[in-house]
Amino acid sequence: MDINLKDFAEKQWESEDRNRFKFYECPACGAKFFSREKRSHCVYCGSGMIKPCWSESIKPDGIIPFTVDKEQAVDKIRNFCSGKKLLPKSITDLDFSRETMGVYVPVWVLNAKGKSRASFKAVKGESFKKGKTEGIKKDYYLLKREGEIFFEDNILKTDKTHGFIKDIEPYYFAEAKTFDSRYLEDFLCDKFDSDKDEACENVRSTIEKNLVSQYKNDISGFSNVQLESMDVSFDSQDLKYILVPVWLMNFKYEGEIHSFAVNGQTGSFTGKAPVGRSEYLKYFLLIFVIIAIIGVIIAFLT
C-alpha cells in the first residue's frame, strides 16, 4: 500500500526555545511534557517523581489556540459532576479550578486524496438435482473493485495518542496558526513525538479494514468473499504536526487515575465519574429503608 509519510521534513526547536521552557519526564507513567514554569508533579498521574530532561523534539508546524477559557471549561466539569449522588466526596471536595490545567497536545494531521483498487475471490453456489443425485454447483469468480479516498484533517491515531482526543473531536484545523512558542506561555505542552512510522502503519491498517468492509458490502449474491489483493495510491499528501488545546483535570481515586477533558477550541467534554463505595452503600441503604417503610405502610393499611 503506497502510503509514505517518511519524506515530510521535520522541524527542530531553536536554542532560545529550549532555554525558555523546562522539559520534564515522569518515570511513574512515562509522560513527557514541558512548561515555562517549574513543575513538581506530573500533569497526568500526579507523581512527584518527575525529573528535568531534554531530548531532541519535533517542532510543531502549527497550533490551534485556546478559545474556550478556563472558567468555561471548569463550568463544563462542574455541570457534569453536579447531581451525581454516587460521586466520591473526595472528588467533589476538590478545587476544580486549581486542578484543571490547559495542555497543548501534539497530533499528526493528514490531508490526502488517492485511489484504491482491490480484487476479491468469491463463490456463487447453485443447488441442483439430477435423478437421485443432489448437490451444489459452485462457480469461482475474481471480482475487482476500485474507488477514491479522501482524508481531510484526519488525526492519525497511534499508541501514544491520548484516548480522550477521539472523545472530544473534532478540531477545526482551518483555524490553526503558524506555530509560535509564545502561544505556550501560560500552558503546559505534552511531548510524545509520536512516530511517523507508527502513524503510517495505523493509516494502512485503518484504510484496508474500512475499504475491505465497504467493498464487501457492495458485493451481493456471492459467498466466501476473500480479499486477494489491494493497492492504494495517493495523488497528494499533506502531513502536519499540530498542537491542539485541551483543558484537563486528572485525579486519583482508589489508586486509579481518572480524567475529565474539555476541547479547548469547541468546549466538547468527555469524562467518566467513578462511583464511591461509601456513597453507593448510603444510597443503597436509603433505597432499602424507603422500600421497607412503604412495605410497612401497605401491610398496615391492609
Could you describe the 3D structure shown?
The protein has 302 residues and is α+β, with helices and mostly antiparallel strands. Helices cover 26% and strands 39% of the residues. It has a domain at 11-109 and 153-196 and 239-293. The chain contains 7 helices and 13 strands.
Topology of this protein?
Elements: E1 11-12, H1 15-20, E2 22-25, E3 32-35, E4 51-52, E5 58-59, E6 62-63, H2 70-81, H3 89-92, H4 96-99, E7 100-130, E8 133-156, H5 163-168, E9 177-178, E10 188-190, H6 196-218, E11 223-253, E12 256-263, E13 269-271, H7 277-301
Parallel strand pairs: 6-11, 7-10
Antiparallel strand pairs: 1-5, 2-3, 2-4, 3-10, 6-9, 7-8, 7-11, 11-12, 12-13
Series of secondary-structure elements, N-terminal to C-terminal: EHEEEEEHHHEEHEEHEEEH
Number of helices: 7
* Rg, alpha carbons: 27 Å
Strand content: 35-45%
Shape descriptor reads flat
What is the compact description of this entry?
This protein has a domain at 11-109 and 153-196 and 239-293. With 302 residues, it is of the alpha+beta class. The strands form two sheets. Strands 2, 3, 4, 6, 7, 8, 9, 10, 11, 12 and 13 form an eleven-stranded mixed sheet that branches.
